[in-house]
Specification:
There is one protein chain. With about 500 residues, this protein is of the alpha+beta class. The protein has a domain at about 1-95 and about 365-430: Uridine Diphospho-n-acetylenolpyruvylglucosamine Reductase, domain 2 (2-Layer Sandwich), CATH 3.30.43. It is built from 19 helices and nine strands. The chain has helices spanning about 1-20, 25, 40-45, 50-60, 80-90, 120-130, 135-155, 170-185, 200-205, 210-220, 225-230, 240-260, 265-280, 285-315, 320-335, 340-345, 350-360, 395-400, 440-460, and strands at about 65-70, 75-80, 165, 370, 375, 385, 390-395, 460-465, 485-490. The strands form three sheets. A four-stranded mixed sheet has the order 1-2-7-4. The protein has a three-stranded antiparallel sheet with strand order 3-9-8. Strand 1 (about 65-70) and strand 2 form a beta hairpin. Helix 7 (about 135-155) runs parallel beside helix 19 (about 440-460), helix 8 runs antiparallel to helix 14 and helix 12 (about 240-260) packs across helix 14 (about 285-315). It is globular, with a radius of gyration of 23 Å. This is Cytochrome P450.
Length: about 500
């Protein structure tokens, strides 16, 4: 009897999956052939590639402007045309204003952050958090950023003997984490000097890869939200949630009780809670505050760390570019008595071009995602994207397409120079575009530039790995499989 029941269950499951994987065929949309039960993500399931690389490789398998794919059990549309992608994010935003990622505010408050919230709830929170990232606020952060930067220089001087090999991705990460601890969490960490600092260890826990449960959570957040709903798992490991909740609860309770203030992100959240209490509006819970602080912790740490370290990697393989950038940094600092300020960072035009080129080759998130919120007819087409359909923009593949960026493998900051512009603007949006772009992009870029100016003004770097980066598997953002080990020398 058991054998027959098992056979019946297997048959029903197989037929059910066959039906799921016939979705695009039934709707008459050009699609890539799926493999049961992986859809089009077998290499991701087998931990051979990262999420971003696996998605972007699907881009190479078709020439259509949009193509149906299966993110495991979830049908989605891959948008191969960058102009259509930009329309979806900008002019036709009202039909795609949600991301379609996992968000269960009641059961899993940490999933209800600014990245994941849908509709009006996202719009309300975005409006409240935007003041954190104005030019005035960024200027106010400069003393904090420079205090952390000076700690970085002190530590780097102890490593720069020209012989010792240092993982500059790790060093960049520790610099960024010290910044985030101060700016967002409101306390002083010691990540630069102490690799065992709880802030470092927590980030390692947050981005660790390899365990089945971690990969299952990641797949549930980005690919199949139903998986987390079905299993009852939270979007983050309990130890992560407890770590952040303890810090934020203590910070908020201490400041509210003692009427103390500090210029950081936690203070903005406290002020929002006070304002809501005065006006009778719905107040942010401590869980909501913690969820959004953690979002900026993980997103800011990964993006700025990656951009600093990928830039250093490219510069070590492009000595002419490095020399030109260091000359600009030297000249600017000499004209300002060696002082690094918000204003003279903005003066460094070639630095800006280098950061833009790094973000082209190595975008913070290699894919952008949206969910169709109103049935949408694709311009100049008979295809209708139905409400609820997941839409994926393969950002990395678009930015490495020679049709839009000539010689895409070449690191060429000059391609972004306004006088010699050599790229398709509608194909470049490393932080997304439209109302739902990255709220913290200016802060992330500022932290990245300060890190690069500090390092390149004092040290030379020599690579120990080939120019072609080998990416780590089973991750969402792009990360080098072996870090970025480099030899460092003091500049004279």
């Amino acid at each position: 009897m058991f054998v027959y029941t098992l056979a019946l269950f297997a048959t029903v499951l197989f037929l059910g999956l066959k039906y799921v994987y016939s979705y695009w065929e039934r709707h008459g949309v050009h699609h890539l052939k799926p493999v049961i039960p992986y859809g089009n993500l077998r290499t991701l399931a087998e931990k051979k590639e990262s999420f971003g690389i696996a998605i972007n490789k699907l881009y190479q398998q078709s020439t259509e402007p949009l193509v149906g794919v299966y993110l495991f059990f979830r049908p989605a549309l891959l948008i191969r045309d960058p102009h259509l992608a930009k329309r979806i994010m900008v002019s036709d935003y009202q039909s795609f204003h949600d991301r379609g990622v996992y968000c269960e505010e009641q059961r899993d408050p940490f999933s209800a952050n600014l990245f994941a919230l849908p509709g009006q709830r996202w719009k309300n929170l975005r409006a409240k958090l935007t003041p954190t990232f104005t030019s005035g606020q960024l200027r106010n952060m400069m003393p904090t950023l420079m205090d952390v930067g000076n700690k970085l220089l002190e530590h780097m001087h102890t490593l720069a003997d020209g012989k010792r090999v240092v993982d500059m991705r790790d060093m960049a990460s520790r610099f960024v984490l010290d910044v985030i601890a101060s700016v967002f969490f409101g306390f002083e960490a010691d990540c630069i000097h102490n690799s065992e600092d709880p802030f470092v260890k927590t980030l390692t826990l947050a981005v660790r890869r390899g365990s089945f449960v971690d990969n299952f959570r990641t797949a549930g957040v980005f690919l199949c939200p139903g998986l987390l709903k079905l299993t009852g798992l939270t979007s983050l490991a309990p130890e992560l949630i407890n770590f952040v909740m303890d810090i934020i609860t203590n910070q908020i309770e201490y400041r509210e009780k003692n009427q103390t203030t500090r210029k950081d992100f936690v203070q903005l959240l406290i002020d929002l809670r006070r304002e809501a209490a005065k006006t009778g509006e719905e107040s942010l819970t401590i869980e909501q505050c913690a969820a959004n602080v953690f979002l900026f912790y993980i997103a800011g740490a990964e993006t700025s760390t990656a951009t600093i370290s990928f830039t250093l990697h490219e510069l070590t393989h492009s000595p002419g570019v490095m020399a030109k950038l260091q000359a600009e940094i030297d000249d600017t600092l000499e004209r300002h008595d060696g002082q690094i300020t918000y204003e003279n960072i903005k003066e460094m035009k070639y630095l800006d071009l280098c950061v833009k080129e790094t973000l082209r080759k190595y975008p913070g998130l290699p894919i952008l995602n949206r969910e169709c919120t109103i049935d949408y007819r694709v311009p100049d087409s008979d295809v209708v994207i139905r409400k609820g359909t997941q839409v994926v923009i393969p950002l990395l593949a678009i930015s490495m397409n020679e049709k839009y960026f000539p010689e895409p493998e070449t690191y060429s900051p000059e391609r972004f120079d306004e006088e010699t512009k050599n790229y398709e603007p509608d194909a470049y949006y490393p932080f997304g575009a439209g109302p739902r772009n990255c709220i913290g992009l200016r802060q992330g870029v500022l932290v990245t530039k300060i890190g690069l100016v500090l390092l390149l003004s004092k040290f030379n770097f020599k690579a120990t790995l080939p120019a072609k980066v080998k990416f780590a598997a089973a991750t969402v953002p792009l990360a080098p499989a072996d870090g970025f080990p480099m030899r460092i020398e003091r500049r004279t």
